[in-house]
Structure formats: C-alpha cells, structure tokens
Amino acid sequence: MKSWLTKFRISAALDAGKPLPQSLRQRIATDPELERFTRRTEALGRALRSVPPAAPSQRDSIMRAVGAAARQEQPRRALAPSWLAASAAVAALAVMLLWTAFHRPASPGPQSLDGAVMVLQMSEQMPDAMPRMVMAPLSDEWARVDRDLKDTTQVLLASFP
Amino acid sequence: MPLEFQSISDEDLARQCQAGDLAAFEELVRRYENRIYSFVFQSCGHDADAREVTQDTFVRAFEAIAQFDPRRPFAAWLFTIARRKGIDCFRARIPDGGQTVPEKLDLDDPAELLARRDEAQALWRRARASLPDSQFHSLWLRYAEDMDIADIARVLGKTQTHVKVLLFRARHTLGSELETAHPPFVLTAKGANL
Fold it and tell me: Using the beta-carbon criterion (under 8 Å), do A50 and B123 form an inter-chain contact?
C-alpha cells in the first residue's frame, strides 16, 4: 500500500512536469522497485509522445459543412431580433396586465368619503328618528355618540388630501 | 499557415469567429483537423467514422462558438465536443486491430515515416486494446496532445485527482502489457522499439 502510494506520487509529479521533490528522489535512490517504476514511466511517456501521422486533410469538406451550417444559421439569426422584439412586447404586456390585476391601487377616496358622509347623515338623523321618550334617558349618551361620530367624520375628511 | 493568422492564438481566432469571421474559423480547422481526427480515429479505429465525427465536431463548434469563453483554452473546449460527438463511435470500436491510418500523400521520406508510423501506431493500438475509454483518452490527451492535467480534467469532465489516477493506472496497465508482449516492446530513451 505504501509503495503504491509512493508510485502514485511519482506518477503525479511526472505528470505535473516539474522536477521530483527531494523526498521522492531519496526514496527512489534507495528502492530498486521505485527506481524501476520511475524509469519505466518516463520511457513509456517518451514512447507515447510519438503519435501516428494523421490522415489526408479533409478541410474542404469540413468547411463546406460549416458553410452549409452558416447558411442555415443566417435566416434564423435574421428572424431572431423580430421574434425577440415580439416576445418581449407580449411578455411586457402580460406583466403589465398581471401587475394591474394584482396590485390595483386601492381607491380609498370615494369609498371612505361615502362612509364618512353616511356616518354624518346617521348622526344628524338619529335624534329625529327616535321617540323623545325613549331618547330622554339616553340623551347624554346620544350626545356623546353624536359628538364622537362628528369628530370621526372630521378626522376622516381631514385625512384626505 | 496564412500570414495574417500566424501569430494569433487559438483563443483570439475563436474571438474573431464570434464576430463572424469565417476565415478565422477555417484557420482553426487547419490547426486542429488532424488532431481531432487522430483522437477520434485512435479511439474508434474506423477511418470513415472518424472523418464523420471530425466534421461533426467542427460544425458543432461553429454553431456553438458564441458560447465559447476565450479566457479558457480552445483546445480543451474543442476536444470536449469531439469526445461527446465520438461517444457512439467509441462504443462501437473494434477492440483490437482495426484499420490503419490512411497514408498521407506528401511523404518526404516514405521509408522512415512508414517505420515511425508503424511503431507509434502499434503502441497506441495496444493501448487502445488494453485500456478502458477514460484511461485511453487521458493518456492520448496527455501525450499526443501534451495537455496539462487541468485541461484533461475539463475535457473528460472529471476532477484533476481522478485524471492523475487514470493516468497512473493506464501507464501501469500498458507498462505491464508491454513487458509481457510477444514480440516484446523495448522502451528506450528514444521511445518504443518493436
């Protein structure tokens, strides 16, 4: 196991193309098996660097195929901007619609004003609508409620620009 | 090599391709066609298949050139495409033997070239026959392409440590094979002798 690891370290160091570290060189010098392994690895590397010659050139046929691919690509590229613009416009429209649907600004003005007016009318009509006999014991209370309602109305009305 | 491209790096040529320069792409084809062909041919052993994969590789590279990052090495990117394109071809490979590389027509010294070709071809054929795909590819990219470990890892989609292990195992297997071969391979300072 130890020898295997050392061989792997030698192999990796040779692949890195740098000189072997001093510690490894010392071990190789004292271990015939490691020395043989290093020599064999280096020799094999040299042998493998000789590459069989390649075949005759096929550049013309490659460039013909590339040219055909380029011709096919051109109409697609030409169409691309118009498609992009159309898609972008549709997407923007969809986003706008969705945004307005989900983020419709609350229209507090008219609704709240209606409410305020209603409260005001109620407060004014209430004493007339109730029989005086029934109202008498509660007149102070009604007066307070009436005042509160009026104050609330004033506050609501004042809160609108 | 056309003079205008002589001092331009692969990555700069790729940048020119991205700007729509077809001549720059042709220069890349000129630089790499033999290398890609050899890589594929040594892996699958069929001339016609290797030619087809080589062509498909360049067409794909042209189509995808916009996605190439010129800060990265072009060779690793192109070999990654070649490897992917050749996967079917590699699977259908003939385990041993196979065709020989078609001879180049412009031989300066036919006898010497023939001897060298036979020697190198025999060694690589033996490697092809005895090693799994990943080990063979890492060996080819390391020695035939002189790629560093980081680029090999990129091409094969593996970690650098994994590539180191692949190379270690590949050399171990091939070294043992050569020692027991008949006739034996002799690993010399110059290379391998049959």
Answer: yes
- Contact criterion met (CB below 8 Å) for B53 and B95: no
Residue B158: CA count within 13 A, CB half-sphere:
16
Residue-averaged pLDDT of chain A: 78
Neighbours of B145 (CB within 10 A): 18
Q: Which band of pLDDT confidence, cut at 50, 70 and 90, is reported for residue B104? A: very low
> Where in chain B are the domains?
1-94, 109-194
Q: Which CATH architecture has domain B109-194?
A: Orthogonal Bundle (1.10)
Q: How far is CA B110 from CA A52, B99, B113, in A?
A: 14, 19, 5
Mean pLDDT confidence for B27-56? 92
* 8 A C-beta contact, residue B122 and residue B182: no
Calculate mean pLDDT across residues A54-81. 78
pLDDT band at B105 (very low <50, low <70, confident <90, very high): very low
Q: Which residue has the higher pLDDT, B119 or A110?
A: B119
- Listed in sequence order, the residues at least 6 apart from B74 whose beta carbon sits closer than 8 Å to its beta carbon are B10, B11, B13, B14, B28, B68
Chain B stretch 115-144, residues whose beta carbon is closer than 8 A to a beta carbon of chain A: 116-117, 119-121, 123-124, 127, 139, 142-144
Using CA coordinates, name the residue in chain B closest to A7. B168
**CATH class entry, domain B1-94:** mainly alpha
Between CA A6 and CA A27 the distance in angstroms is 9
Q: Where are the domains of chain A?
A: 2-48, 75-103, 108-158
What number of C-beta contacts closer than 8 Å exist between A and B? 131
Question: What's the burial of A11, exposed, middle or buried (CB within 10 Å: 0-12/13-18/19+)?
Answer: buried
Ramachandran angles phi, psi of B20, nearest 5°: 100, 15
Is A49 within 8 Å of B121 when comparing Cβ atoms? no
Rounded to a whole number of angstroms, the distance from the CA of B120 to the nearest CA of chain A is 5
pLDDT score at B109: 56
